[in-house]
Fold this sequence. Notes:
The protein is mainly alpha-helical. The chain folds into two domains: 16-50, no CATH class; 61-293, no CATH class. The protein has twelve helices and four strands; from the N terminus they run E-E-E-E-H-H-H-H-H-H-H-H-H-H-H-H. It has helices at residues 43-50, 61-68, 70-103, 106-111, 113-144, 151-157, 159-179, 182-190, 194-199, 205-215, 220-255, 261-295, and strands spanning 16-17, 24-25, 31-32, 39-40. The strands form two sheets. Strands 1-2 form a two-stranded antiparallel ribbon. A two-stranded antiparallel ribbon has the order 3-4. A hairpin with a 6-residue loop joins strand 1 (16-17) and strand 2 (24-25).
Amino acid sequence: xxxxxxxRHPDTPAIGSCARCGASYCGACSVAALAAERVYCSPECxxxxxxxxxxxxxxxxxxxxxxNRPIGLGWKLFLRSIPVVAGxxxxxxxxxxxVLWLGGSSALEAIGESQMSGLxxxxxxxxxxxxxxxxxxxxxxxxxxxxxxxPYLWALRxxxxxxxxxxxxSIIVLSGMLLFFIPGxxxxxxxFWADEFALVLSRSPGRAIRQSWELTRGHGWQIFGFQFVVGxxxxxxxxxxxxxxxxxxxxxxxxxxxxxxxxxxVESTVLIxxxxxxxxxxxxxxxxxxxxxxxxxxxxxxxxxxx
Length: 307
């Protein structure tokens, strides 16, 4: 029996069948959905199955509304997504709490503090970054209606491109700040959504940066104002939470209650979980604005994705 051939490239052997239409596709045509285990023959099939792409930028009023009301709709998205976000990130919070406990326990001395302390710090930062990526994936699923799948696998699969994109953008913006300050602000607004392109839309770091630059053209002042308002409100919310957390922690220390390893782990888990939720509260308006802005521009629905 002859091997199946790609529908669009009849001379190329197929590697699979589209999750939506069943057409055979080759490696050059394959497009992954937000769920890592579902693969399509084209961006069009992926987007139709996800119920977002073919209408994005045409008549999807639900997403387009995010352009005019990103903060209000973003925080509504966050509030209704708290259970699902917390349900996904709590294992990461527990893992971080265990790493923190190990860093301050006698077990570290037995292993060799000089050899392990740096690795534990790195492990905690990696876990926190992964938790932030996972939070972004879960919120995007909730907002866009992308085909649901395993967000842990997707966040893991896109973690390195997302982290590289974030790192490159940070270096670019910091360089602009150090040189003349104002260029740093401009770069920060124009590259604001590069990480979203890399994490959710499967762009390579370079392409993610280019597409964020293109998407934000002509919207710099609006994005700057958006960042300022979100950041200001965030601080108003976070400062009382931090003060309350410190007071609770100091009270536990004064009673000796927090010396119990189990109590330490639970306390750390709760604080880390709150940190992930705080990140989600800030990120939700960002992604509603992102998809709202894309929905107001033509040609975004039929762009090819990196496979």
